[in-house]
Design a protein that fits this description.
By secondary structure, the protein is of the alpha/beta class. The protein has one domain: TIM Barrel, CATH 3.20.20. Helices cover 35% and strands 15% of the residues. It is built from 12 helices and 13 strands. The protein has an 8-stranded parallel barrel with strand order 4-5-6-7-8-9-10-11, surrounded by 4 helices. Strand 2 and strand 3 form a beta hairpin. The radius of gyration is 20 Å and the shape is globular.
Length: 410
């Protein structure tokens, strides 16, 4: 890892972005130019902020729901979004189940949350969603449009992240449906995803508040790197058929950034490569030092310089055993190296209380919601408890991630 950088990190002062917005009436389009992200006027930007996890893709470990059915119940354990909604439908019918889903969406993230994010100096949010939005009341764009509109008003960019594709691109619960894992096995699901990205790109092609499209979150089930690159090319072409403007974000699928191809050979333009950084086997806070230096930065800077492409750490956190000072080390290292990033995640609403998993967390844990035994009225009445004003802000983590106005040495 180099100890100096030629780039003056103009974008560290995320307040620059609202000034662009106020001067021009809207955020400028972003594009990838060499190793940097730049505005349409050529100003370099480092995107930095939070994932909006658990809003459009409910994850049980981040939520107040009891997941184990009573003994002898006909219901199955709730592991993911699909099983949660199926349980509500079975108990209350489709209309009331949709009302509960709407209530979750409406209370979890509000216009006030985007004002909070602006106050934190955030200039970008990564927005995980699944293709299941197409079948929800209001369709695919109801909540995506809400988020983009609120972000635009506050001078914040949005990265649209397909967390769960048709057929699901992995076995994980955060694809929306645990254990399905058919995306890479069945061409019909890939064809559906091509159509989905074509629809999304056509809808947002003229929207500068959208920073880019993250084509597939953690596509870990690709049989090899070549298969993954082929699928990414197919999705890239679907976007480019209708949208030549937005950055396309291509993840390594935990196959390591050094396995990513030369974008020029692939015919990819205006792209950004992405990796995720976790160290779940950490035993102490100091374990993160080597992880950052060797696993994250050696790969990121190597690929950034070799292929002349921006790099984005789309998810990272320092649980277990991390602390705000280590988070500061990560954020400042990314900033100085011109690497954009999004911490996982903005808020948690679990039954277990605070951690570093969210900037906002429950002080002592939210009251559990039991989807198997609570009445519809009880569940609906509990939904406002997930609003951010009922959570506690972690001031040390906020200070650690705050944008700096310092510049890197020439």
């Amino acid at each position: 890892m180099r100890n100096h950088f030629s780039l003056v990190v103009v974008a560290l002062g995320a307040a620059l972005l609202p000034s662009f917005a106020s001067a021009q009436g809207k955020l400028p389009f972003l594009k990838a130019e060499g190793t940097r992200i730049v505005t349409s006027a050529g100003h370099p930007v480092v995107l930095r902020g939070f994932n909006l996890g658990n809003w459009l893709v409910e994850e049980m470990w981040l939520s107040p729901f009891d997941t184990d059915p009573p003994a002898g119940s006909e219901f199955k354990k709730i592991n993911d979004h699909v099983r949660l909604h199926q349980t509500f439908v079975a108990r209350f019918g489709q209309e009331k189940a949709d009302r509960l889903l709407d209530s979750w969406r409406a209370n979890f993230l509000t216009s006030e949350d985007f004002a909070r994010l602006k106050a934190e100096g955030v200039n970008c949010v990564r927005l995980p969603f699944t293709y299941d939005l197409e079948s929800e009341p209001g369709g695919l764009f109801r909540w995506l449009d809400f988020a983009v509109a609120q972000a635009r008003v506050n001078g914040i960019y949005v990265i649209l992240d397909l967390h769960g594709a048709p057929g699901r691109q992995g076995i994980e619960h955060h694809t929306g449906e645990e254990g399905v894992n058919q995306f890479f096995a069945d061409a019909k699901f890939r064809a559906q995803t091509v159509q989905l990205w074509g629809k999304i790109a056509a809808h947002y092609k003229d929207e500068p508040a959208v920073a880019g499209y993250d084509l597939l979150n953690e596509p870990v089930s690709a049989p090899n790197a070549s298969s993954l690159h082929f699928v990414h090319s197919t999705l890239y072409e679907a976007v480019r058929a209708v949208d030549p403007n937005h950055i396309v974000i291509i993840e390594d699928g935990y196959k390591n950034l050094d396995q990513m191809p030369d974008p020029r050979i692939m015919g990819w333009k205006n792209v950004m490569y992405s990796m995720h950084s976790y160290k779940f086997d950490a035993k102490t806070a100091d374990d993160y030092d080597g992880h950052l230096k060797w696993w994250v930065m050696a790969q990121s800077k190597g690929v950034q310089d070799k292929w002349q492409v921006p790099v984005y750490v789309g998810e990272w956190n320092l649980e277990p055993h991390g602390n705000p000072e280590k988070a500061r080390m990560y954020a400042q290292t990314f900033d100085a190296a011109n690497i954009s990033w999004s911490l996982w995640t903005y808020k948690t609403t679990s039954k277990w209380g605070g951690s570093m998993w969210g900037l906002y967390t429950p002080k002592t844990g939210l009251k559990a919601i039991n989807p198997f035994t609570d009445s519809f009225e009880q569940i609906e009445a509990a939904m406002p408890e997930i609003r951010t004003e009922n959570l506690v802000r972690n001031p040390d983590l906020a200070a650690a991630l705050a944008p700096s106005t310092a510049t890197t040495p020439q």
